[in-house]
Amino acid sequence: MTLKQTPLNAAHRAMGAKMVDFGGWDMPVNYGSQIDEHHQVRNDCGMFDVSHMRVVDIKGAGVRDFLRYVLANNVDKQTVPGKALYSCMLLEHGGVIDDLIVYYMSETWFRMVVNAGTADKDIAWMKAQAAMHAPELDITDHPEFAMIAVQGPNARAKVWEALPGSEELTKDLSPFNAVEMGAMFIARTGYTGEDGFEIVIPAQAVPFFWATLAEKGVKPIGLGARDTLRLEAGMNLYGQDMDEKVGPLESALAWTVDLKSERDFIGKAALLANPPANKLIGLVLLDRGVLRGHQKVVSEHGEGEITSGTFSPTLEKSIALARVPVGVQVGESVQIAIRDKMLSAKVVKYPFARNGKGLI
Amino acid sequence: MSNPSDLKYTSSHEWVKTEADGTVTIGITQHAQELLGDMVFVEPPTVGRHLKSREECAVVESVKAAADVYAPIAGEVIAANADLDGSPELINSDPFGAWLFKLKPDNADDVAALMDAAAYQAVVDSEAH
Hints:
The complex is a heterodimer of chains A (360) and B (129). Chain A has 360 residues and is of the alpha+beta class. In chain A, the strands form five sheets. Chain A has a six-stranded mixed beta sheet with strand order 10-11-12-9-3-13. Chain A has a six-stranded antiparallel β-barrel with strand order 14-17-16-15-18-19. A five-stranded antiparallel beta sheet of chain A has the order 5-6-7-4-8, covered by helices on one side. Chain A contains nine helices and 21 strands. Among the domains of chain A are: 9-50 and 144-232, Probable tRNA modification gtpase trme, domain 1 (Gyrase A, domain 2), CATH 3.30.1360.120; 277-358, Aminomethyltransferase beta-barrel domains (Elongation Factor Tu (Ef-tu), domain 3). Chain B has one domain: CATH 2.40.50.100. In chain B, strand 2 and strand 3 (24-28) form a beta hairpin. Chain A binds chain B through residues 18, 29-30, 33-35, 224, 228, 288-290, 292, 310-311, 313, 318, 339, and chain B through 37-38, 40-41, 43, 59, 61, 63-64, 66, 92.
């Protein structure tokens, strides 16, 4: 199978990237040292090619009503143009189809950014729902758009240097808001726990923009560091920390599900009918070793499993997210089966690190 | 970095050096550390343990993944590199210097049967395709 390439493929190779097959995409895992890249983002700033993610525009009268029904979070929270909202999209039985960010542009236009691996499935699902409930809507995805995330305490200043006119437009932009700039779309969002922007830009313009950022001293960061940064920041990864077999309430995403309003949405009845037996918790390994996905967790309240685990460069300890019985509480010790040993880990309140600092 | 010609190699990317006293020193190759990336944890075999040839005996973990290390030949573990405890990144910076453990071979001739540098390079090249 031929791997899909982003418009920055040649740029990554020229910068010495080690390329890997990432869900069918030929992507940079690092450009040298993953740990150095991780610290670069926490302490200064770095840029990520996230062009494999997909922009989906939903347009037409009634788009708000449609999304009110299709998303677990409530788009009625979005009243100011450009406002972003993180949400899960659920199956009837409450399993997570995808997690995404939706932007309110106008009463006839909402923009979504969805995961690469799930994009086709998401679009097919939304089109099927629209056919039943809102046939007048136009749902169009934009694989011709590239996307760069610039993240870190100095990220905004570097983007302002690289992109004339952007400072005026975005200096007063609050976190989780976005603005259009010509054919570009600049959102103050990210997946690292640091300040910064995610910038949607037409594919033909992205190599020049990437090169300009590099010229201003912004270092490229691979998907390896992206994963350790998001895990330290306590952000779930779809397909690993949740999927169609588990619901948002078992995935530490209750804060993104609006069960209070009268509004009906797909999956609501199932969530109300089935209180979760498990939940997602944070772990810090007390013994020496590295926590990894699928390792068994043994607690006084029953067994669970690590969903994501790694070595945290900021804490210099191993950390993980794990799905365990709801009885497990912060502060308890649990045992982790690693190869032929049982190692001790502590249940902690997370995020583990954000804004340049460890929080554990 | 080319593979030193005075070492022997395995297809699972260990290098083996025969010392003057007949013991052997074992580490992982440049190619192996490059595949794994930044090392964060090393678990060497216990000193005194007897290893069979091809037995899983140590683990090296990078940020990215855990990898097993295999005994290139049968023998008894006579030393483990304590420097790697606090500084596993030495494997990245100096893979042919940062040894993992030393063995007293059951049979001194076993080392001769391992691959030389050229044969090992052919294995690495074939993996690239």
